[in-house]
Amino acid sequence: MIEVKNLVKRYGDHIAVDHLSFTVEQGQILGFLGPNGAGKSTTMNIITGYMSATDGTVTVNGLDVYEEPEEVKKMIGYLPEIPPLYPDMTVLEYLNFVAEIKKVKKSERKEMISDIMEATKITDMSNRLIKHLSKGYKQRVGLAQAIMGYPEVIILDEPTVGLDPKQIIEIRELIKELSKNHTIILSSHIMQEVSAVCDQVLIIDKGRLILQDKPENLSNHLGSTGGLKISVKGETEPVLEALKKIDRINDIRENHSYEEGVVNLTLHCNANEDIREEVFYSMVEAKTPILEMQSIRMSLEDIFLKVTNEEILEEDSIDEEEIPETIASEEEVDEDVRDL
Questions:
Q1: Is 3.40.50.300 the CATH classification of the domain at 2-75+151-220?
Q2: pTM recorded for the entire structure
């Protein structure tokens, strides 16, 4: 449905997007993650045709964004981080305006606006001025304009910013419902949100692709991402000697203990392995009772922090010469760079 190939965006000596390539299949929800300045907003602006690229191609449903921009824009609904609202309009006036801009047929306009307001839970606000709405309701109106015309692709940049927990759950359910008929790219800093709604997760850093996979598979790329935390009654040396005999333990780290005669350890293994029984029988053999045992699994937040760490980039053999040593000053950088 969406294919991004060798996408590059430069601002002087600063590379905002660095030969980025990925695909999004029809009906998928892609979670787009990266630290501030990673190039997420720039990439989304290029996909929507709002911004041009320095190099590379973007196609939506087989149509090139640059060669057929008008046709591509008809297929895309976009909610930027700051919704494009007119505060002096009522909600209904604004949505009618959006429907007209998107060339929704007059015969379909009233019913479509009604359905979209119902879906986004803003029907009761239809006659309120947008400037008098709370931040959460403004975000909902922005989402309503994004899905006006029922585009094939919906791009959402931080769609739940400013919403309370109940509203966040409702918007997540709406996004899931929309995915039945739409392809969705979702940028968010809320890891639980990405885990809850996304079929695929794409992590970028410094404009480069770091990882792309299903949320449940991401930890497999990082080796020792599972394991146990244990508290054992005994002396450190015999406990460690017994545990080192277990081949599936990749790393053992000793943690501070506030109890005399108690050893606290973190044992790392591969994410899909269960070492609890081996650890139990090993401690029985060493006659060192286990006081506490807790399984650990790497969360999406842990994975995100790890893969965007400079040490991981170095392990991936990224040439330091490819990373610009200096970044243009704020005065030299275009306004759209500040949206990164």
A1: yes
A2: 0.69
